[in-house]
Specification:
Radius of gyration: 14 Å
Number of domains: 1
Strand order of the largest sheet: 2-3-4-9
Strand content: over 45%
Oligomer: single chain
Order of helices and strands: EEEEEEEEEEEH
CATH topology: Rieske Iron-sulfur Protein
């Protein structure tokens, strides 16, 4: 297996703490969230009715960092992509490997859904 390729996206200071910012990445709309010591990247649509997660409120609920969809208040765990309010076994939000190095947010390059088809 080859080494993963990490692509610089932006300086961490361009992402306000606990707020989302969107970007187009590998053919998808992605929401980036600065959680302080780390960043997370998820597809920017709620599985319920495709609400823009980037506009949601970030909070800590029972030890999990979540974002609340602004359309219908679905709460999604940013670490797992699982909908936790209401609790459901339904679809998850797709996540993408992200990290901070030397003050720069990096995303791991991979195949997009279009390339995988």
């Amino acid at each position: 297996m080859s080494n993963p390729q990490w692509v610089p996206i932006t300086a961490i200071e361009n992402l306000p703490l606990n707020e989302g910012r969107s970007l187009h990445w590998q053919g998808l709309d992605i929401a980036l969230f600065n959680l302080g010591a780390r960043v997370v990247a998820v597809e920017n649509k709620c599985p319920h009715q495709h609400g823009p997660l980037v506009d949601g409120m970030v909070s800590n609920v029972e030890g999990r960092v979540t974002v609340t969809c602004p359309l219908h208040t679905r709460r999604i765990c940013l670490d797992t992509g699982q909908i936790i309010k209401p609790a459901t076994a339904g679809p998850c939000v797709r996540s993408f490997p992200a990290k901070i190095e030397a003050g720069v947010v990096l995303l791991q390059k991979g195949r997009s859904e279009a390339e995988a088809a």
